[in-house]
Amino acid sequence: MTSQIYTFSILTFFGVWLLISIFCQFNKTKISTFLRQLDLFSLIPFWSFFAPNPGTTDYHLLYRDKVNSSTGSYWKEYKLSSNRSLIGALWNPKKRTKKVLSDAVSSLITLSKDMKDNEYKTTLPYIALLNFIASIPRENSATATQFIIMESYGHFTESKPVVIFRSEFHKI
Amino acid sequence: MEQFTDITFVYLCVKYVALIGILISSLELLYNWKTYKDDALFSWKIISSTKTSQHKGIHDFLSFFLKYPNFLGILSVQVIAVLLTFILGNTLETLLIAIIIITTLLINYRSIYGQDGSDQMSSIILVTLFIYSIDPSNYMIANAGIWFICLQAILSYFTAGFYKAKGEKWTTKPNAVFLIFNTSTYGSKPIASVLKDNAPMTKLLTWSTVVIECTFPLVLITGYPGMIVFLGWGFAFHLMNALVMGLNSFFWAFIATYITIIYCAFQIAEYWIL
User: Fold this and answer.
1) Residue B167 and residue A68: Cα distance in Å, rounded?
2) Any idea what DSSP says for residue A167?
3) Which residues of B touch A101 (CB under 8 A)?
4) Torsion (CA) B6, B7, B12, B14 in degrees, nearest 10
5) For a Cys staple, A100 with which of A68, B27, B114, B268, CB 3.0–4.6 Å?
């Protein structure tokens, strides 16, 4: 009897998990939002790889510093994309950092469109990007830093990259 | 192919293929150890500031494990547990997989950004392996576990196809494949240069991705060798993603699910083949 209850419980567990997974793929309802809020450990998947609108542009993260009260230095880019190699198909530790930065940049762009001036400064992507920029080793004794996000349109394009986000200078 | 009807063999294959991917992922996370410091990209102080208002009790408890440098210990424990699972085989399997699951959930909780479908599929596989390892002789649970992984994999392809079919760049103006390859983030300049001047090929590749993903559930009823069309496409797709896009962990997590798809397709074939 105990064995039967155990078997039934496990089968129910698989069934419920699968049903929640299916439900949360296709319905953005109050229930699915609530379920995702409960999902602290990312157990409800979302399988929309490159869909419906695939990423067709590249983001670029650039920063510049101020030393004391000088005007800002020239812009330096921290590359969000990396060169591919055959080894990268097996061992690709840089993808984690690049993915986090890309996700944070995309998230900041989305948030900044919906928020009033300065509201975005307390958001996670803004603080995370600023913290990351500030942590990059520097040769000079920079006192403040600023970053911008640019968008470019691929290898083969006639469109020029454009600035889509600019932070203020922040003390470091 | 008869081996794929043997439930023990299927679980063994799924376990080892998935664990290779999990080992690579956890070693990659450990390799980036400096980024978990408080003044770096994955600073727990910053990440936790967004979580403190929700689920405070759980958060405070987990914070101990997730702050720097304790988190490096969690990653190290996961690497050791995966290696021991390889070395010891079935000995202590349930305990070791439980440790891998706990460490995986902690990693998931800490990662607001940077997670992908392979992490979610790995969690699904690990939980199923854990349940199976408690009582491998319980055929109903073992069988249901394989079906669970298989249906999650099929759901993943169908969902991706469903949303692609709603996207203009995939259907009405089918050039998504060129546009993706044209980026530096996930693309390849040599491949983009070939596709740039070859609109029919771009159209074919774009549409075939949508069609195969939308029809992927048919893999269960096309029998053998019909299933090879879907699984062969999927294998090539994930291999290309690993080689061109650097998405190495997807390959292991999803190839592990193919073993369960073959098992389930053979089980259905006993009743009906298209």
Assistant:
1) 50
2) P
3) 41
4) 110
5) B114
Chain A contact set for B164 (CB, 8 A)? 50-52
Contact criterion met (CB < 8 Å) for A42 and B108: yes
Q: Which residues of chain A have pLDDT under 70?
A: none
- Contact, A57 vs A152, CB < 8 A? yes
Q: Give the model's confidence band at B208: pLDDT under 50 very low, under 70 low, under 90 confident, else very high.
A: very high
Task: Enter the ipTM.
Answer: 0.94
Give the residue from B60, B63, B64, B69 showing the smallest Cα distance to B36: B69
State the SS3 of B156-215. HHHHHHHHHHCCCCCCCCCCHHHHHHCCCCCCCHHHHHHHHCCHHHHHHHHHHHHHHHHC
* Residue B14, CA atoms < 13 Å, CB-side half-sphere: 34
Phi-psi region of B223 (alpha: psi -120 to 50; beta: other; left: phi over 0): left
Residue B67 confidence class, pLDDT cut points 50, 70, 90: very high
Quote the minimal CA–CA distance from A73 to chain B in Å: 22
Query: With 70 as the cut, is the pLDDT of residue B274 above it?
Result: no
Q: Which residue from A minimizes the CA distance to B165?
A: A52
* Nearest to B234, CA basis, from B122, B203, B217, A3: B217
Closest residue in A to B128 (Cα–Cα): A14
C-alpha A102/C-alpha A104 separation (Å) is 5
For chain B, give the mean pLDDT: 93
By three-state DSSP, how is residue A13 classified? helix
Q: Is the pLDDT of residue B53 over 70?
A: no
Point out the residue among A42, A57, A135 whose CB comes nearest to the CB of B120.
Answer: A42
Q: Residue B146 is which amino acid?
A: I
**Contact B113/A58, CB-based, under 8 Å?**
no
Q: Which of residues 157-216 of B touch A (CB under 8 A)?
A: 157, 159-164, 166-170, 176, 179-180, 182-189, 192-193, 196
pLDDT value of position B134: 97
Q: How confident is the model at residue B50 (pLDDT cuts 50, 70, 90)?
A: confident
Residues of A in contact with B168 (CB under 8 A): 52-53
- For residue A18, the chain B residues in CB contact (below 8 A) are 148, 151-152, 155
Q: Which of A92-101, B1-10, B78-87, B233-242 has the lowest mean pLDDT?
A: A92-101
Distance from CA of A104 to the nearest CA of B (A): 7
Q: Which residues pair with A65 in a beta bridge?
A: A145
